[in-house]
Every structure is written in C-alpha cells, then in structure tokens.
C-alpha cells in the first residue's frame, strides 16, 4: 500500500511538466470506471451498494486555459442491493439493477500551476435502459420513470502521454433530484452514485 501511494505521488509530481490547453481547443476521449450505487428515500440512504461500471465517450471544449465545457455519454450501471419486493406470497429481499445512458453536462474548472487538475460540476440526464431485480428476474422497467435528472460533481487530474494525448483519473459523485418511480405514492426514491474513472483524452 505504501508503494502504491509513493508511486501515485511520483506520478502527480511528473504531471507538473504538462501543458495547458488553449482557447477554442476541443478534446475527445474515452473513459471506463467502477460504480458504487444505491438509493435514498426520504433522507434515508440504503447502505447496501450495487457494484457496477460505466463506460463511454467524453468531449471537453476549452473557453480558456482555466475553463471548459465537458459533456459525456455513458452506459451507466446503477441500482442497489438488499432491496425488497412485496407480493401476495410475502416479502422477498433482492438486488435491483437499474441501468441508464447518462449524459452529464458540466462546467470544468482547470487549476494548479499547469492546469492539470480539474473540478467539474453540473446536471446530468439519464435515459432508462432496464430495471430488474435479481431474485426472480422480474422486469420493473414499466414502473420506473424513463428519465433520471440529477447533479454531478467530480475532481480529476490529467497526465501527459504525448503532445496531444492525456491519461486521466477522476472521482465522481452523482445524486438524483427526480423520483425514479412512476406515480409514486410513497417516499421519493432517488439515485445515488460514486465512481472512480480512468480514460484517455486526445
């Protein structure tokens, strides 16, 4: 573990030799990441997280060396574990798999001496792909809203690979502000997700 942190510090130090982007530059990239997701309901957060992943494409347009607009299109696995389904036969505990195409639209602030660090923030829209539970494989898609709207916040750092290519590592958190369930008469159910992402920008 100590070797890992030593290596990470060394890599971050090397990254100070990188260059800043200029006004009008647009970068495209790819990313993949690990998701830890759950739901909140009336202020209560389910503590049994679903492990999943995200993968997709990234666009980053620079208005200056400090500010850019970042947009992503991601296949985004969400859901939660240890939920339950109530049927006439009783209550069944199960895991829920709720997957989206997520589109974050974020302001991206680049900071530090070489502008390699960045903080991004803004809204996202998720388009529902499927919603199932694992115990019996029941499809709940018709009971879930087709879109999920929320807020996304992330911090990351880029490392130069070539004059035009950068490798990046970032941490993101996203929280829904809309109800996941159609015509819900109970507590409002909202998505909550944390992710660790890596990728390349060109």
Overall description:
There is one protein chain. A hairpin with a 2-residue loop joins strand 1 (26-41) and strand 2. Residues 11-18 have low confidence and may be disordered. An eight-stranded antiparallel β-barrel has the order 1-3-4-5-6-7-8-9. By secondary structure, it is mostly beta strands. It is elongated, with a radius of gyration of 19 Å. It contains one helix and nine strands.
Offer a concise description of the structure.
This protein is mostly beta strands and 202 residues long. It has one helix at 2-14, and strands spanning 26-41, 44-45, 50-62, 67-87, 90-111, 117-133, 147-160, 166-176, 189-201.
Could you give the topology of this structure?
Elements: H1 2-14, E1 26-41, E2 44-45, E3 50-62, E4 67-87, E5 90-111, E6 117-133, E7 147-160, E8 166-176, E9 189-201
Antiparallel strand pairs: 1-2, 1-3, 1-9, 3-4, 4-5, 5-6, 6-7, 7-8, 8-9
Average pLDDT figure: 90
Given the helix and strand composition, which structural class is it? Answer: mainly beta
Shape field = elongated
Distance between the termini: 31 Å
Low-confidence stretches are 11-18
How many E-type strands?
9
Helicity range: under 10%
Q: In percent, how much strand structure appears in the residues?
A: over 45%
User: Helical segment tally?
Assistant: 1
- SSE sequence, one letter per element: HEEEEEEEEE
For the largest beta-sheet, the strand count, sense and barrel status come to: 8 strands, antiparallel, barrel
Computed CA radius of gyration, to the nearest angstrom:
19 Å
Strand order of the largest sheet: 1-3-4-5-6-7-8-9
